[in-house]
Write a structure and sequence with these properties.
The structure is a single chain. This protein is of the alpha+beta class and 668 residues long. The protein folds into three domains: 39-309, Beta-Lactamase (2-Layer Sandwich); 310-415, PAS domain (Beta-Lactamase, 2-Layer Sandwich), CATH 3.30.450.20; 425-659, Heat Shock Protein 90. Helices cover 50% and strands 21% of the residues. It contains 17 helices and 22 strands. The strands form five sheets. Strands 1, 2, 3, 4, 5 and 6 form a six-stranded antiparallel sheet that branches. It has a five-stranded antiparallel sheet with strand order 12-11-15-14-13, sandwiched between helices. β9 and β10 (244-252) form a beta hairpin. The longest helix has 84 residues, at 2-85. It is elongated, with a radius of gyration of 40 Å. The N and C termini lie far apart (111 Å).
Length: 668
């Protein structure tokens, strides 16, 4: 019995020891798995946040480079426009404007006005005292000049070097046109390294090394202080902007990477956190919040840099327009002359600056935006701190908070005063040219109009003599008929004079809804006298049931008369060998547009004249100004239509213009 008992006891001890060891191993394995699982989650999250931060840095660098390149094209385009719109512009005034561009947009080393002969007219900056040929001798700039002239728009040149040892440079080329004539270009030379340092220098932080390549050449480098570069973790991003191939290389610093990795002390901490779940969660979310804080700080810095580079201002306000504006960027002072604090403190609201004549419309736009939630875009005037009226362009949208559902309005505002001024000057100049062309047209039609007026005047004289004779002979019963004829011919002479006055009068464009039939009838009446002088006939073919058109009748009559006179002159140049009838045909096309066509049987348009037919100051007439077709096309385009021509197979040409039908009041 005693031996058996001992055997049993021995057996029990042998079986329980492996079981305890197994539970210990199992517990250790479970703890180890839990520790490594949590470590893996934290490590993965750290890598994701690091990657997100790096991706954001790449995105912001790319955005600023593209936007600043757009701003430089726009700025030199405006300088080119101002160089010709101010008729009193002196070299000193131009140099003041150009030097201000050098200050406002660091990176430009010189800005020059290059003439069509590729010689420097005026210049400011580092190369201002260079030879007369200057930068125009560089092949890359010459090629860009040809491209800008052909496209009538600012362009970037290819990369070039001033000399073999010099740094690479690029140029912005903006064409200069005055009254349709090419007068050279405004060229701004950019030193890329200096440019990028001014645009994105403040954007960088101690979390990464940044290197930027342009067409494969390194032109910018930022090294985080106190850190060694590890190229094994470098991330590359390539993009294309304005024809250039860019590459951004981002290498995270070792300190930034180690902040998200679990080293030995962190592993010990995680083991402790595993034993206390609440503490682990608190530390984990605290770690995530710390990373988010760093990221938000970077985003805030990047947004501040972005707002400083915007050519305008951004703001944010809630639905209650009486409350202070929630956010106003620094650009408000450049636009209005008022500091941002004045708006943020509620001492003044942006709507207070809006011109009284525009305020109701602006408030209506804002209310509609809040009601519909749709993006908006409109322009208006403000009165700045100096009492000056300036034109603003605003675009924005409505956003709702995810927490308390407050609705806010985010809008971006920029100054378009110079653009509006240039458009106004161009419109006034076009109207003046149209007026001169109408007077020229009247002068050339003087003989026909004199003949037209002479007919009713001669008839009036004959009827007066006949009436006097009848009264003397006592035949008064026929006098009422004589008086009726006198009145009819007097009205006819008056109508001719009124049409002359309407055509010659210089006034603002006023559009009314008229029928196509009446429009054609009035034009034919004006041209009939000249047709008779030239021994020609006008054949009218107007399609029935045509819709009305909304036009300035005098301007459209001017276009049609110009086409009729050109057609008659073309027929007369070939001695009317194909007939003496010129046609006026009106019809509605399949797309709904109304076509007014003048069909002649003259010489047609020679192949050599087609490309410059509608160009200003281009004419085949000995005494012509060359503005008739150019002004006519501008008038038709302003009415939403198109002016063109086609040569006829049997000889002659058909000049036609298309106008949209008038929109009825009931149309949606």
């Amino acid at each position: 019995m005693g031996d058996m008992a001992r055997a049993t006891i021995v057996h029990t001890e042998q079986t329980t020891r492996p079981s305890a060891i197994g539970w210990a191993v199992l517990a250790g394995v479970v703890v180890a798995i839990g520790v490594f699982a949590l470590w893996y989650v934290v490590d993965r999250r750290a890598h994701e946040q690091a990657g997100s931060s790096i991706d954001h840095a790449v995105h912001m660098n790319t955005l600023l480079i593209r936007q600043d390149a757009d701003n430089r094209l726009l700025a030199l385009g405006r300088l080119a426009l101002r160089s010709v719109t101010d008729s009193q512009l002196s070299q000193a005034d131009w140099e003041v404007d150009a030097k201000q561009h050098l200050v406002d947009m660091p990176g430009f080393v010189t800005i020059q006005w290059i003439t069509p002969a590729l010689r420097t007219r005026w210049a400011v900056g580092a190369d201002a005292n260079a030879s007369a040929v200057g930068i125009a001798a560089i092949p890359a700039i010459q090629a860009a000049i040809q491209e800008a002239q052909a496209d009538s728009a600012p362009v970037f040149s290819d990369i070039f070097q001033v000399n073999e040892s010099g740094d690479p440079r690029v140029a912005v080329i903006a064409p200069v046109f005055h009254h349709g004539e090419y007068e050279g270009v405004i060229a701004g030379v950019i030193e890329p390294t200096f440019w990028l340092e001014s645009v994105i220098g403040e954007l960088q932080n101690d979390n990464a090394h940044i290197q930027i390549l342009l067409e494969g050449d390194a032109i910018y480098r930022f090294d985080a202080p106190g850190d060694l570069l590890d190229a094994r973790v470098t991330q590359q991003h390539r993009f294309t902007s304005h024809g250039f191939e860019w590459e951004i290389q981002v290498t995270p610093t070792t300190s930034f990477l180690s902040a998200g990795h679990a080293d030995a002390p962190t592993l010990v901490l995680i083991v402790g956190l595993l034993l206390s779940g609440l503490t682990a969660a608190a530390v984990y979310f605290g770690f995530a919040a710390r990373n988010r804080s760093f990221q938000y700080h970077d985003i805030a810095l990047q947004l501040a840099t972005l707002f400083r580079n915007l050519p305008g201002m951004a703001y944010r306000r809630n639905k209650d327009v009486a409350a202070p504006m929630a956010f106003v960027s620094e650009g408000c002072q450049a636009l209005s002359g008022y500091r941002r604090e004045i708006f943020a403190d509620g001492d003044k609201d942006w709507l207070d600056l809006v011109h009284p004549d525009d305020r109701g419309r602006v408030q209506s736009h804002i209310e509609n935006a809040f009601a519909s939630g749709e993006p908006f875009e409109f322009s208006y005037r403000i009165t700045d701190a100096n009492g000056k009226t300036r034109w603003m362009w605003e675009r924005g949208r409505v956003t709702a908070s995810e927490v308390d559902h407050d609705v806010h309005l985010e809008g971006f505002v920029t100054d378009i005063t110079e653009q509006r001024s240039a458009e106004s000057e161009a419109r006034e100049h076009r109207e003046h040219l149209a007026h001169v062309d109408r007077l020229n047209l009247l002068g050339e039609m003087a003989t026909g109009i004199a003949h037209e007026i002479n007919q009713p005047l001669t008839a009036i004289s004959l009827f007066v003599q006949a009436g006097g004779r009848m009264a003397h002979e006592g035949k008064i019963e026929k006098l009422p008929e004589i008086f009726d004829k006198l009145i009819r011919h007097a009205h006819r002479a008056s109508a001719v004079i009124e049409r002359m006055q309407n055509l010659a009068r210089r006034r603002e464009s006023a559009r009314t809804t008229v029928s196509c039939k009446d429009l054609v009838r009035d034009v034919v009446r004006l041209a009939e006298a000249e047709a008779r002088i030239r021994d020609m006939m006008i054949r009218v073919d107007t399609e029935a049931g045509l819709p009305d058109v909304a036009v300035d009748s005098v301007q459209i009559q001017q276009v049609a008369l110009n086409l009729l006179r050109n057609g008659m002159e073309s027929m007369q140049s070939v001695n009317c060998k194909n007939g003496n009838t010129i046609g006026v045909h009106t019809q509605q096309l399949e797309d709904g547009m109304i076509e007014f066509a003048v069909i002649d049987s003259g010489a047609g348009v020679p192949e050599a004249e087609i490309d410059k037919l509608f160009a200003p100051f281009s004419t085949t007439k000995k005494s012509g100004m060359g503005m008739g077709l150019s002004i006519s096309r501008a008038i038709v385009t302003a009415h939403g239509g198109r002016l063109d021509f086609r040569n006829n197979e049997g000889g002659g040409a058909t000049f036609f213009f298309l106008l949209p039908p008038a929109v009825s009041k009931g149309a949606s």
